[in-house]
Design brief:
With about 100 residues, the chain is of the alpha+beta class. The protein has one domain. The chain has two helices and three strands, in the order H-E-E-E-H. The chain has a three-stranded antiparallel β-sheet with strand order 2-1-3, with no helix packed on it. A hairpin with a 4-residue loop joins strand 1 and strand 2. The longest helix is centred in the last third of the chain and has 8 residues.
Length: about 100
């Protein structure tokens, strides 16, 4: 949630969360290479990886859209996401938070 506030609504694309596992997925452009590799809080999934999403209007099985897709194709700005989660960008979670 802190990263969402730092990025701001003008640069934020769809964000999916799973409240049962305390995870979030940020939809980013496909043409990223290794720009996000040094951010410990992120796992980058490859093109073609399946992300199970609920309908936009209601949560399903613990998954909910924090920021809904709006049909425009707008994605989260990776530079701003990296800055909000990278060194000095925000609080670090303890390893236990990731299971």
């Amino acid at each position: 949630m802190d990263a969402i506030k730092r990025i701001g609504p003008d640069h934020l694309g769809p964000v999916l969360a799973d409240v049962t596992s305390a995870r979030a997925w940020w939809l980013l452009p496909l043409d990223l290479d290794d720009e996000m590799d040094d951010i410990r809080l992120l796992t980058i999934h490859p093109h073609g990886w399946t992300l199970r999403c609920p309908p936009v209007l209601y949560p399903l099985r613990g998954r909910v859209w924090v920021e809904c897709p709006d049909g425009s194709g707008r994605l989260t700005d990776p530079v701003l996401l990296g800055a909000s989660l990278g060194p000095g960008g925000g609080p670090r979670l303890r390893a236990e938070a990731f299971g």
